[in-house]
Amino acid sequence: MGFISRRFGIMILIAYAAILIGGVAVWKQTIAISITDQSHVNAQDTEPPITTPAPPSAEVLAYARQIAEHFSALPAATSDAGEQYVFVSISDGQSPALVALGAGADIPGAIDQALTQLDSLWTHDTPPEWIKLDVVQHTYTFENLDFGQPLPIVRSLNGFALDWASELAFLPEESVAYTLIDSDGLIRFDNIEEYLGQRAVYQTPLSEWSGPYSGDLIAFTSTSVFMQGDEALALYRGHRTAYDTSPEGLVAAALQGGAYLTQAVKDDGSFVYSFLPKSDQEQDDYNIIRHAGTVYAMAEVYAAAPDPALLDAMQRAAAYLVNATVICPGQTTDIDTLCVVEDGWVKLGGNALAIVGLVEYTLATGDEQYLPVMTQMAEWIQEAQRADGSFVQKVFVETNVIEDIDSQYYPGEAILAMTRLAALDGDARWLDVAENAARYLITVRDAGLETYELTHDHWLLYSLNDLYRARPEALYLDHAMRIAEAIVMGQNRAPEYQDWFGSYYRPPRSTPTATRSEGLCAAYQLARDFDLPEMADQILETLEYGIGFQLQTQFQPESAMYLADPQRVLGAFHRDLDNFEIRIDYVQHNISSLLCTAEVLGAK
């Protein structure tokens, strides 16, 4: 069955998707709509009027409905630009999307041209699994550009065209997925030429293009609609604009992240630490501390939804972590302890997160084989604590030489390790270590700091939540609320772009938001349970905003469809909105924050 014979069915899918997103617009037989707005600016302008994509408009929805219901009888519409441009992207869900550019006097004509190009390329006996329609909305021509300088556009929001007639036009998703414009804003003609060889609907090599490599460039925004089966979504920057943030929806998203981690565990128990979806390559790098934290997140997922494949992967990852330990001499006694070692060094955070991960593994599985290991690792932390409550944080194992470092996060991780292990084995000495460390951080390290100056330390918030419940002291509760307040103050509530809302930093990244969400979730539990209702409400609002941002950085079909191996990345969290690197700690922190938020929302 050929693609053209199913064209009407695909048109219905496109129309149905648009109707689901925005409702049904009333069609008027006499309407004449201009969808494409065209402007010209000079390259010397410092703030070019590049707009951001708009949601599907009433005009686009009306056209989509008519494609389905009255395709053969649609009245022609005019365009100020003379032609209407659309992109149709289709994928079987396993392979990178085929993308066709269509041009016509109206949207139906442009779609028809795009589908004609795709007809001979679709060889499957079933319709596409994923379909995406982009209707070009605004165009701007930049004149006299120097292509050796950064382009004055946002590559993840603005498509660009070198020449419409030669089909040298690309969606923002293509720019990001294939680095047609790099992170510095430079146009990459080498990558464009390579990509055109893969973009099968394009027939003419870039080397035969008659245009100059400097001069004019057309930037555009487009209205985007994505569909899979009966699901239809409005898109912004290539990701959906609405998410299921119910407890069930958050757990489902966390389970998707857990599925990614399950397949990311190698036979020896190590992880695919960093994966670059754009090039389909693994990075040659590793970090055993992040390995330990990822074991923790996997155990949380397993506790929420036991799965044999996840259990097998988690067991291999836990064994790898334990195999990274060696016998270490004590700092102040002759007691032999265990250290998690990487490149010859033991770090406070390594032992601490190993304990945290193995405690969670033990609780989730009931497998207590690692209790002696955790005890010996905790004894090293105990030995590493100075009289004032601070810690030795890094030691070269062979020589026992201390390197003087001051990680902002290792102490909080150590306190958490002690509180979690004490809850598991009932040994009060771990709580003594935790209390000494907490008092040092609060009364010495953070003494005199204004609230806004406090480190947004999620590990410390986790540990203060645990510690206050085990040994209530107002000092711990008060400091936790101050850290939470600092995080609330730092959240983006009036950002430049709508999908930055709820994040931190500018431009924002996925993991810094996720870690703050983890910390806020722990702080919320304290405020809720210990009679601080106003603070609890403020924290919960900030937490929910943060989760909304984070979900935009999880690979879903609409954001994965242009990549080399879409199925491999589904469920993973990428670095930021236009950097697709996947690292295990990105996934770890997002999972933990989603599960914790689902728990508190469910309880609420």
Structural notes for this entry:
It is a single chain. The chain has 604 residues and is α+β, with helices and mostly antiparallel strands. The chain contains 19 helices and 18 strands. It has helices at 7-22, 58-69, 107-119, 172-177, 189-198, 247-264, 288-304, 308-323, 348-365, 371-384, 410-425, 428-445, 458-470, 474-490, 510-529, 533-551, 557-560, 566-569, 584-603; strands at 37-42, 84-91, 98-104, 130-145, 159-163, 168-170, 215-228, 231-236, 239-240, 274-276, 281-282, 325-329, 336-342, 345-347, 394-396, 401-402, 574-576, 579-583. Strands 1, 2, 3, 4, 5, 6, 7, 8 and 9 form a nine-stranded mixed β-sheet that branches. A five-stranded antiparallel β-sheet has the order 12-13-14-15-16. Strand 7 (215-228) and strand 8 form a beta hairpin. Helix 6 crosses helix 8 and helix 7 (288-304) packs parallel to helix 9. The longest helix has 20 residues, at 510-529.
List keywords for this structure.
604 residues; alpha+beta; Glycosyltransferase; 3 domains; nine-stranded mixed sheet; five-stranded antiparallel sheet; 19 helices; elongated; disordered N terminus
What does this entry show, briefly?
By secondary structure, the protein is an alpha+beta fold. It is 45% helix and 17% strand. The N terminus is likely disordered.
| Strand fraction | 15-25%
Largest sheet: 9 strands, mixed
Contiguous low-pLDDT stretches (5 residues minimum) are 1-6, 16-36, 41-48, 61-80
Rg calculated over all Cα atoms:
27 Å
Share of helix, binned: 40-55%
**Total beta strands:** 18
> What is the first-to-last residue Cα distance?
52 Å
On the 0-100 scale, what is the average pLDDT?
A: 87
Q: Label the structural class.
A: alpha+beta
Number of domains: 3
Number of helices: 19
- What overall geometry do the principal axes of the alpha carbons give? elongated
